[in-house]
Design brief:
One of its GO terms (biological process) is xenobiotic metabolic process. By secondary structure, the chain is α+β, with helices and mostly antiparallel strands. It has a single domain, classed as Cytochrome p450 (Orthogonal Bundle). The strands form four sheets. It has a four-stranded mixed beta sheet. A three-stranded antiparallel beta sheet has the order 3-11-8. It has a two-stranded antiparallel sheet with strand order 5-6. Helix 8 crosses helix 18, helix 10 packs across helix 12 and helix 14 runs parallel beside helix 18. The termini are far apart.
Length: 509
């Protein structure tokens, strides 16, 4: 018996020796990884964002001597530190200084994407958000130009957004005096707005295509930065097992199929040279390029549509959900916004995006809602495109980079009220709107969000229009508000009910 135990311990010792993780020379410091698992067993995967700030939970005994309970990782190791995803090293960036030096100063060096994660496999290595190299550059340039041509930042886009807002307004008017569940309402609006640009279609709010695809998006984004995705990334041997992460692949396949049907319809009805939407523009571009060996293809088009649908739906809608949660529970902020909106719009029938320049407090509130919403806390993971140095450390080519945007949006040295919802974070002493450099909800550098301009316009027009028409109140029977987000690639608030009241019409003039 004793000899068997000795042999077992020797076997474990050899296993640990053979698979031990060697930290590269002058690599950022971090918690010691466990062979094979890396830091998987030390992280609370249900609350990963908190663990990137604090010492890992469930630490093995030999870690107790290294960390004090609740010690923050960034305080222990600095603003740039490393963790291991299985045997792969990853560098976590925290704070404005590290983020600027990496994503802005060395923008292209940090513009790569890791290619062996679940999110890449679900996207079949296509699209624009997760590709790298020439394919990414070609398609990002095409998307930016096309979105601009289809009205991004122009009156035509305002009209699309205001048209969709009318359906939200109608729904709220029917439910005035009640408390409603808003969870899907803003997702439907954001989905329709981006669909109008991508495939030229607006779906009725009862449409099964719309409801089904929103379900696919919300379910997938929750899984993709959750514990099952981390397990998928860290333990490749488990990837083909029927575990919950397989839902992401099923959802992506279903969405690609339905988008493929939309592309087929466009091919039948399009008039070359007269594009109705981004899909027509892409098909025109494919036709123009012919067989020149470019990366433009029908599969790539479908992947781009999928990318933009994901990016354009969940982030904006979750920000709106956070905004109304805080507006209900901060009635003084809501009333001050409404007063400013009434004064600026006066007798105008509709708000315009240009009106934002005369609404500093409302602008501050919207940006503060984005800050506290922190909808994409870890951005999309980056990778280095060549060997480089960052804040004194050597970072090898191909290293996975995790930009902790949450650390910037809550950095105590950068904000007057880092842990509270307070529009004063975006106002100077004169009451003028200012945007601190730590405001990075859309990331920064070469990989900054493609849809930033559209999101900004949507948030302003939706919030201003609804605040002008309605008062939002926290339901009396709703208990204590819970601002704790549900973590995911895009995080949203826990479900709540939205109390809706019509404002006194006399106060609107």
């Amino acid at each position: 018996m004793l000899s068997s135990l000795i042999l077992l311990w020797i076997g474990f010792g050899l296993l640990f020796f053979l698979f031990r993780t060697r930290r590269p020379k002058n690599f950022p410091p971090g918690p010691r990884p466990i062979p094979i698992f890396g830091n998987l067993l030390q992280l609370n995967l249900a609350d990963l964002l908190n663990d990137l700030r604090k010492a890992p939970h469930n630490m093995p005994i030999h870690f107790i001597s290294i960390f004090r309970d609740k010690c923050k990782l960034s305080e222990r190791y600095g603003k740039v530190y490393s963790i291991y995803i299985g045997r792969k090293p990853a560098v976590v960036l925290n704070g404005v200084q590290a983020m600027k030096e990496a994503l802005a100063t060395q923008s292209l060096v940090f513009a790569g994407r890791p290619q062996d994660l679940m999110i890449n496999h679900a996207g079949e290595f296509k699209g624009v958000a997760l590709t790298t190299g020439p394919i990414w550059k070609e398609h990002r340039r095409f998307a930016l130009i096309t979105l601009r041509n289809f009205g991004l930042g122009k009156q035509s886009m305002e009209e699309r957004i205001l048209g969709e807002i009318s359906y939200i307004t109608s729904h709220l008017e029917k439910n005035a005096g009640k408390a409603i569940d808003p969870q899907i309402l803003f997702h439907k609006a954001a989905f329709n707005i981006i669909c109008s640009v991508l495939i030229g279609i607006r779906f009725k709010h009862e449409d099964e295509f719309l409801k089904l695809n929103i379900h696919y998006i919300t379910e997938s984004t929750t899984i993709l930065n959750g514990p099952w995705a981390m397990i998928y990334d860290m333990l490749p041997l488990l990837r083909h097992l029927p575990l919950p992460f397989q839902k992401v692949f099923q959802n992506s396949a279903n969405m690609r199929k339905s988008l493929g049907e939309q592309v087929s319809q466009h091919k039948k009805t399009r008039v070359p040279g007269e594009p109705r939407d981004l899909t027509d523009c892409y098909l025109d571009e494919m036709e123009k390029r012919g067989d020149d060996g470019s990366s433009f293809s029908e599969k790539q088009l479908i992947a781009c549509l999928l990318d933009l649908l994901f990016a354009g739906t969940d982030t904006t809608s979750n920000t709106l959900l956070f905004a109304f949660l805080h507006l209900m529970t901060h009635p003084d902020v809501q009333e001050r916004c409404q007063k400013e909106i009434d004064e600026v719009l006066g007798e105008k029938e509709q708000a315009s995006f240009e009106d934002r320049h005369m609404m500093p407090y409302t602008q501050a509130m919207i940006h503060e809602a984005q800050r506290v919403a922190d909808t994409v806390p870890l951005s999309a993971f980056h990778a280095t495109t060549k060997d480089t140095r960052l804040m004194g450390y050597d970072i090898p080519k191909g290293t996975l980079i995790i930009p902790n945007l949450s650390s910037v949006l809550n950095e105590e040295s950068q904000w007057k009220f880092p842990h509270d919802f307070n529009p004063s974070n975006f106002l100077n002493d004169k009451g003028e709107f200012v945007k601190p450099e730590a405001f990075m909800p859309f990331s920064a550098g070469a990989r900054v969000c493609l849809g930033e301009g559209l999101a900004r316009m949507e948030l302003f027009l939706i919030l201003v229009t609804l605040l002008r028409r309605f008062k939002f109140v926290w339901p009396e029977d709703a208990g204590v508000p819970d601002y704790t987000p549900i973590f995911g690639i895009t995080q949203g608030p826990k479900p709540y009910r939205l109390g809706v009241r019509l404002r006194d019409r006399a106060s609107l003039h």
